[in-house]
Fold this protein.
Amino acid sequence: MATPALNVRRQGTVARWGDRLGLQSGFLPYFLVLPTLLLILIIAVYPIVDSIFLSFLDNPLVASGSTFVGLRNYSYIFASSEFRNSIGSTFIFSFATVLLEFLFGLGIAMLINGTFPGRGLVRASILVPWAFPTLVSAQIWNLMYNSQTGIITYGLQALHILPVGSSLLQTTPGIVIAAVITDVWKTTPFMALLILAGLQVIPNELYEAASVDGSTRWQQFWTITLPMLTGPMVIALLFRTLDAIRVFDLMYILAGRQVETISSYSYYYMFTGTPSDFPTGLAAAVVLFLMCCLISIFYLLFLRRAQR
């Protein structure tokens, strides 16, 4: 038979565990997010770690023939001019598209931030290009770039920018330019939407006070709008940069293998080559993953510094 002291001790232990699991202790939220964390570990973290491990093997598709080769796969891709060209194409495309989308998105967000008749319809209509899947929009623009029936090619030939019978998709610089135009058309609304969300939370009292002090619209933009938009702009740039640097489907439709990005280089070696090519493509994919991590860290550090 339990003594009264033992019962008190058990009740105290139950009470302490109840307090720890209670809402006041802060311990309960960890239990609530535990299933989500386990799911992320299974579907995201494990494949990443496994891919990094397989990139150090000679032939990971054959269990009996795979041997550890260290950084040999990475040495091979960095020694390859094809992979170096893919890095150059990826960064040129990413820089051009993100810069243009930021400038156009900021301008569009400033224009539709005001009050005017039909504002809701305008805001909804600018999202139409972004709503198209990339494969669909790429195919649409591919037809417009066609050397025989493309309307864009016809216009460029009429302006004597292109000779008769040629198109943008016949040269490497032309393909990059065509991809930049297509991506800017499609994704600028997304950038504008994120910046518009940041504009909506800026208090109008700040602009009213600045107007009373005699500041111009340009001064208000530099001293109020831009500083208050730092957070939303950095987040928008982060999303777009990560999306641009891993571009695959757009280049695949417009160029095939004529112009490769890091993603397309990885795809071709992993899934269209021989089994011995698989670790080469896997190493390229790991390099792309590390680039995305470094870009994310850079933007987050910049955001933290700007908020200070």
Summary: The two ends are 63 Å apart (CA to CA). The mean pLDDT is 84.
